[in-house]
């Protein structure tokens, strides 16, 4: 949060801040198939669900969005 003084008021200050959640929005891949007899050996079949969203692991990492929040606060 960055605070700056408001010149027309005595003790007033304006604060502006940013919050980023899942900023890079990259996928979290599952481990490759390690069964040598499987036809998909060495291939990645899906993605892991990681707690990269605001509500933990409820919707999973695949469904979590990139979130940017802006906050402004006026104190006087």
Number of strands: 3
| Order of secondary-structure elements | EEHE
The helical percent reads: under 10%
Strand order of the largest sheet: 1-2-3
**For the report, how would you describe the main beta sheet?**
3 strands, antiparallel
SSE class:
mainly beta
Count of individual helical segments? 1
- Please indicate the count of domains: 1
Distance between the termini: 16 Å
Poorly predicted runs of 5 or more residues: none
Rg over CA atoms, rounded to whole Å, is 22 Å
Average of the residue pLDDT scores? 79
Content of β-strand: 25-35%
CA-based shape: rod-shaped
Outline the structure in words.
The structure is a single chain. The chain is mainly beta and 76 residues long. Helix content is 5%, strand content 29%. Strand 1 (2-5) and strand 2 form a beta hairpin. The longest helix has 4 residues, at 60-63. The protein is rod-shaped and about 75 Å long. The protein starts with a strand and ends with a strand.
């Amino acid at each position: 949060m960055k605070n700056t003084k408001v010149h027309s008021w005595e003790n007033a200050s304006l604060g502006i801040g940013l919050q980023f959640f899942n900023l890079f929005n990259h996928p979290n891949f599952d481990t490759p198939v390690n069964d040598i007899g499987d036809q998909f050996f060495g291939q990645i079949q899906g993605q892991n669900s990681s707690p990269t969203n605001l509500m933990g692991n409820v919707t999973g990492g695949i469904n979590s969005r990139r979130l940017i929040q802006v906050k402004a606060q006026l104190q006087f």
